[in-house]
Fold this protein.
Amino acid sequence: MDDLISYSNTDWMREIDAYALITILYLDQRKTISKEGKGVKAKQEYALLVNDLGKQFVKKKMGNYDKVSVIEAKHKRQIQQEMNELQRDMKYQVEEEKADTESKIAMKKDAIQSSDESIQLYKDEQKSLQEKLQKLNEKQQDLAMK
């Protein structure tokens, strides 16, 4: 998990910076007045480049959400196994031990619920990113027709 966090803190920042730079160049270039159609092709190329960078960024982000979802699902299964072991061991415990084990089981259930919520959040984000990717594909088609 730490590897994924350190990856996201470094490489994503570089990607965001590169994407922001290309976007700024594109926007600045659009403000430039060109003579009789000169630069129209360049504007379209910039627009396509910005669109492609946006698509690459969205795809990488979706891939990262896939990775994190898998990690969270493994974590959830591990917690579920630990909870099942605690429940099996409860048969052989005295009252004081049972109370302690029940509190541990309750904490495990909360952790499982938290994992479920996180996984759902990742799925919602992926759905949003899929819609964004679809819009970027539509934009690319519109730009290619110009």
